[in-house]
């Protein structure tokens, strides 16, 4: 019984196919025919397994490439968003500077104060740290 299990495990269906082929063809030297048939079967099976492994590797490389492309796109988008945020902050700082200069040189400040309060806190604080003489003269930093 153990021999049967061993043969099934090692040869699987190929030995049965080989013996069926020998019975069908009935070659003059069945042992040599069987040996060649088994050798060809093994060579073909190895080639199929190698091809299967290569396909798996190619699929993994393709998946990795897609992931890298996706990551590069995300980084590019993040870089773009950072640039846009920087430009908006820079524009807000410039607007805040113009508004504060106008406030310091104007008599009617009420509407301008409301506009100033709607500006970014960070821009206001960084601008307010500058000397008043620079604000009035319009000196850029």
From TrEMBL:
<dbReference type="InterPro" id="IPR037856">
    <property type="entry name" value="Sdc1/DPY30"/>
</dbReference>
<protein>
    <submittedName>
        <fullName>DPY30 domain-containing protein 2 isoform X1</fullName>
    </submittedName>
</protein>
<dbReference type="InterPro" id="IPR049630">
    <property type="entry name" value="DYDC-like_DD"/>
</dbReference>
<keyword id="KW-0175">Coiled coil</keyword>
<dbReference type="InterPro" id="IPR007858">
    <property type="entry name" value="Dpy-30_motif"/>
</dbReference>
<comment type="similarity">
    <text>Belongs to the dpy-30 family.</text>
</comment>
<dbReference type="Pfam" id="PF05186">
    <property type="entry name" value="Dpy-30"/>
</dbReference>
<feature type="coiled-coil region">
    <location>
        <begin position="41"/>
        <end position="68"/>
    </location>
</feature>
